[in-house]
Amino acid sequence: MSYSSFKKDKLLMESWRNYVNEEASASEMDPNDFPMKLSQVGDKYTRKQAKAIATGGLKDGDAEDDKIGMSKGSWGLKQLKPSQSSMNINKALNFSIMMLLKKGNFSKGPGGDLGCIVTSDNHIMDGHHRWVASGMIKPDVTVGGYEAAFPAKEMIAVLNILTLHFTGRRTGKKASGGFEQFSPERIKSELVNFTQGKGLFKGSTPEEVLRACEIFTEQKGEAAITAAATKFAENAGQLTLSLPQGFPARPDMPIISKGKGHLDLAVKLLSSGAVDINPKFAGKTGEPGGIPSGITSDAVKADRERKMRDLEEGKTPKKE
User: Fold this and answer.
1) SS3 labels along 50-79
2) Is residue 105 classed as helix, strand or coil in its secondary structure?
3) pLDDT digits (tens, 9 = 90+) for 57-108
4) Where do the H-state alpha helices sit in the chain?
5) In DSSP terms, which residues pair with 74 in a beta bridge?
6) So what's the pLDDT on residue 293?
7) Which end of the chain has fewer beta carbons closer than 10 Å to its terminal beta carbon, N or C?
8) What is the per-residue pLDDT for 268?
9) Is 90 exceeded by the pLDDT of residue 302?
10) Residue 249 in contact with residue 156, Cβ under 8 Å?
11) Buried b vs exposed e over 110-140: b needs ≥16 C-beta within 10 Å?
12) What is the pLDDT of residue 317?
């Protein structure tokens, strides 16, 4: 990839930058360097190159230009917006049942820490099932997470670089249905299955599902199931269940796992300015992370094909 005129124009701003204490600017990110879809990131960069970008911001001679402000924050649930339209209704309802019963990781009921980054325009980068499960019970509840001083679309692009760096994955999780699932009819169908022992998470019982619905609706027996389905759907309808145009589908979204330590590491890298987001970039190539210029999708593909041939021939692949 050669220098574009866009990049040259951005570099002219560097002399001005020296006079201000500035954090990372989303407007200065080149979308050619930071594609929004995970598959495009995987086509463009190797895992080794993603690592160079994820750490190059500390090597570019500017201590401030790549920092993204991060702090612990809290929000009313209805303030927040999703960054993906794909939801697993079975998972969300299992969460809701456990919240009503105050079981396991939901011992405090709905709300709590979403375990995710929330962008400056109030999009959640993960934690969607806890978000919607809490909303189905109590849409006015407060939730917490990491508040990022960066907008959603550009954050998705940066987190996809970190996904490739952390995991080597070039595809995200499978899509499993959209917001249209959260209707009274579909929710009731799932709850009926639960009362028959179908689709329940390990450790939950049909009797507990019925008890949770009775607690939620103050009704008994089958009437509690019907009333709970209606109430769940009405409450979910108070949330923002739509996406702006241009957001990737679930398989092209980042995977930043709190349980695997990715979330805390991502926050550390972003807040320290380690991710080489804005020019001046590390090295002398004019590319993020100082990776070689002229990198193309074909070059990345050829590198992967070479590694596959090495594996087939029994050669030990070099670590990236």
Assistant:
1) HHHHHHHHHHCCCCCCCCCCEEEEEEEHHH
2) helix
3) 999 999 899 999 999 999 999 999 999 989 999 999 999 999 999 999 999 9
4) 5-11, 14-17, 38-44, 47-55, 89-101, 128-137, 152-167, 184-195, 206-217, 221-236, 262-272, 297-312
5) 144
6) 81
7) C
8) 98
9) no
10) no
11) bbbebbbbbbbeebbbbbbbbbbbbbbbebe
12) 55
* Type of residue at 239: L
On whether the CB atoms of residues 118 and 124 are closer than 8 A, the answer is yes
What is the spatial distance between Cα 54 and Cα 68, in angstroms, rounded to a whole number?
13
Please tell me whether residue 224 adopts helix, strand or coil conformation.
Answer: helix
Q: Is 144 helix (H, G, I), strand (E, B) or coil?
A: strand
Decide: 172 and 253 in contact? Cβ < 8 Å: yes
Are 162 and 266 in contact by the 8 Å Cβ rule? The answer is: yes
CA 261, distance to chain mean position in Å, is 14
Q: What is the pLDDT of residues 119-139, one digit of tens each?
A: 999 999 999 999 999 999 999
